[in-house]
Design a protein that fits this description.
By secondary structure, the chain is of the alpha/beta class. It contains 9 helices and 10 strands.
């Protein structure tokens, strides 16, 4: 394997994903949190690594060993978080790891703003797609993440992910293949959530959806008055009711007061400990 590097902020057993991605209490997802991101979300909860670049360089050989070690620790998958800018290196590492005995699924945990061409290049590498469909309204995607045509690009990406992986397949409560699409509700942006759910329903309303209430104003959110607070019960109920009206039956919704549970601090040895 030719010497190349990736930048990783943290890796370890992670329990903050949907139930079939973490398994039982002592299992967990094999989380690998990569540094850097091609979106610039003003409210990013992982801003220390996505925007400020906190992390350390690892060779591809080291990345292979990380994956194999997480499997030995009992992780139920390899959960690649913000992997897009490192896709070329990751593909090489996964292929090498599989040659050396990696058998647990690969999870592609991303923001859905990625090209169909890149996803096709990952076909056969990724077992489970975990995109976050952030914006149903283009202008909101540009305002908060600095990208154009988000709904159009993300819809095409999710269609390709579904085509590759199919619906979520679990065995004994553990996900082995398929897709879970997340959407996080933003304060004062209920229409954005409605339009995002409309797009997902048009693709396939039998998909598993992870609807998230965990928004908390971090990073530069305090510069945007309308999102400088958590969501309210009324906002959450309107979105959950709308999702139900669209016929979504598969997936999970967070507890409304869950925001503090999911805020990591990458200055800690384990960012997810209180």
């Amino acid at each position: 394997m030719r010497e190349e590097t990736v930048k990783i902020a943290w890796f370890g057993k992670h329990f903050g994903e949907e139930p079939p991605l973490v398994g039982k209490k002592d299992q967990g997802a094999g989380g690998i949190f990569f540094s850097g991101c091609h979106l610039h979300c003003v409210f990013c909860q992982n801003w220390q690594i996505s925007q400020e670049g906190k992390g350390k360089e690892y060779s591809l050989e080291e990345l292979v060993n990380i994956m194999l070690d997480l499997q030995k620790q009992g992780a139920v998958n390899i959960d690649l978080v913000t992997p897009v800018i490192w896709s070329r290196q990751i593909k090489k590492a996964v292929l090498e790891a599989r040659e050396r005995g990696l058998i647990i699924p690969i999870v592609w945990n991303t923001n859905a703003y990625e090209s169909v061409g890149m996803l096709r290049d990952m076909e056969g590498i990724v077992d489970i797609y975990l995109p976050d469909f952030k914006y149903g309204i283009e202008e909101i995607g540009y305002r908060y993440s600095g990208v154009k045509n988000y709904p159009e690009i993300a819809e095409k990406a999710i269609r390709e992910m579904l085509k590759q992986a199919g619906p979520l397949f679990t065995k004994k409560g553990i996900a082995h293949k398929g897709i879970i699409v997340r959407h996080m509700v933003l304060p004062n942006n209920i229409e954005n959530s409605f339009r995002a759910l409309d797009v997902l329903a048009k693709i396939d309303n039998s998909m598993h959806i992870g609807l998230m209430s965990q928004y908390f104003p971090l990073y530069h959110a305090d510069q945007y008055t309308e999102i400088n607070r958590p969501i309210t019960f009324e906002e959450w109920k309107k979105v959950t009711d709308y999702m139900e009206d669209l016929g979504f039956e598969n997936g999970w919704t967070q507890e409304l007061d869950s925001s503090s549970v999911y805020i990591p601090d990458f200055n800690k040895e384990n960012p997810f400990t209180p």
